[in-house]
Structures are given as C-alpha cells and as structure tokens.
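Q: My labmate handed me this sequence with no annotations at all. I'd like to see what the chain might look like in three dimensions before we decide whether it's worth expressing. Could you predict it?
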Amino acid sequence: MTLATGVGSLPGSDQHAYDEALRVVVGELPDLPHLPEVPGRGVTAQMTGRALALVAELGVDLQPAGWRLTDASGVDHRRARSLLAQDLDALEEQAQEYEGVFKVQVAGPWTLAATVEKPRGDKVLSDHGARRELAQALAEGLRDHVRDVRRRLPGVDRLVVQVDEPALPAVLGAQVPTASGFHKHRSVDLPEASQALTWVFETITEQGAEPWVHSCAPGTPWQLLRTAGARGLSADLAVLAAADHDALAEALEAGETVALGVVPGTDPATAPTDAQVTESVLRWLDMLGLDPDEVGSRLVLSPACGLAGASPEWARRALTLVRAAASHLG
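A: Here is what I predict for the chain of 330 residues:
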C-alpha cells in the first residue's frame, strides 16, 4: 500500500497553530503522521533551533547573526529545548493511542554546519574540528530523542527519523557564503561528508529507527546518502535530474523507501486534482520501468517541501491530495 506523509513544517505563528497542525497531521495522514514543525512561532521553532534543542553536550546561544556555539547554553537554547518538550507533550496527549508508522524530523549535520557559527564567528563549516564535534553531538542528541519519542508513543512499531539536508548540495559545491559575504567556504571532501552523515544514520539505526533524508534542493547527492546509511530518500519530483531518477529507482529496487514530493509546498495558481497527482506518479514509475504493485509501501507520497509558506487552506488541501493519490495507487 502506498503511504502519504508530510515533509514537516506547517503554517502558523503561535501555540494554537501548533495544536491545529497536530490535529491536521493526525487527521489527514493516518497511515504515516509526523511531528509537525511550525517555524512561524520564532527562531527557536525553526529548523536550526529545533535541531540544536537536541544537542545537550554543546553550549549554544542566539546572537544577532544567528545561532552560535558558546561555552554555556544561553536562554534561547533553553527556550528551544522547552518548546520541543512542549510540542512532544502535545503529541503524546493527542496520539498516545496511535499504532503503526510515525515520523520525526531533524536538521542534518551539514545543514547545521552551514547555519551555526563558531564561538568567534563565521560558520562551523569553516573548521574541521568544530563540524566534527557538532555532527557527533547531534548524533548523541538523537539517541535520546528517539528513546523519548518511543516512550511517548509506545504503539509505534516503525519510527522514521527524517534528516533534513537542504544545504548539503551547497556545502559540497562550495556555495555557502562566508561571514563577509564576499567569499565562499571551501567544499567538504566526500569522505568527510559521508562520515558525518554515517554517525547520524548509524545512531538512528542503532535505536531501532529508520533513517531517511529529505532535500528539495537540486543537486542532492542521493547515492552518497544511500552509501552513508540512509534507508529512505525524500525528494521533490519537479527538481530531479536524470541521474536523480536513476538513484531513486535503485533505492526502490533495493527495498528502500522513496518519498516523492508531488504537490507544491506553497499555494499554486491552479491546484491539481488527486487524479492528476496520481497520473504524474504513474508516469514517473513507468519512466523508470517500475510496477506500482511491486513498489507498494516503499513508495510514499508527500508535498514537494515543507508547508510553512502555504496558507492553512492549502496546507490541509496538499495533505488531502497526497493521501487521496496514495489511495488510488493501492
């Protein structure tokens, strides 16, 4: 059976919006719901702050230029942790009887390295030791996070941890700006890039969860991610190049999961119908020479990217569409 899920983020700017997002996710995605993210609530709820909330070993604080590693955690780091705990409490209250597959999301080590600063400024990406330390701290924080989610949702028999790496292509392509903005950080060697990802994926796997990676950025190195240990690939169908299609086909044929982004993450001028979405997926499978019946639950449908920039109406409609299209595929 083809499943439907969301990438992670939903619109809104307060706790009421988060509670509504949780109700929408649980209601519209009954076979593969996820822990919602509502980044409109502020920097502590956004991708970087939410991931740093899991990192207990490193001190972090919020500076005018963004998140920065420090000797001790500042008030904003503590607020990020508190907000995540509050969101998990709300999840436990609404979904404690849920049984089946569930997904949580976290920013990956290279997206964090490209967005977090060192104690004296400039990105963690610029320092080999700092990016190694941050990746290992993230992996260790995920160990406790997975245990906590399992404790809160005892009926979940398959837990997916989606590692968001939208900055990975820029990191590998030397496209991340320095603090001055006049230069770019050097590219990271592929073995080092793979090692940091492997630390994270192995930790997830050791805890009995399933590591996926999401990126809707062109040029995402899907084969590198598979080699590093990802067992699910989440991509935007609209930005895939020929080599990307081949990588996703190989993943499906190897028994791994592909979450295919098939509806826009923001309000479209003309909304597609569920029949049109279904047809686009069938054309993609036919192009790859894959049988929908044989692919089965290894194929998951989702929006192309997060829905934080969408209207509440489109966010709900997008999830309804991917659920309906998934049901048509059987």
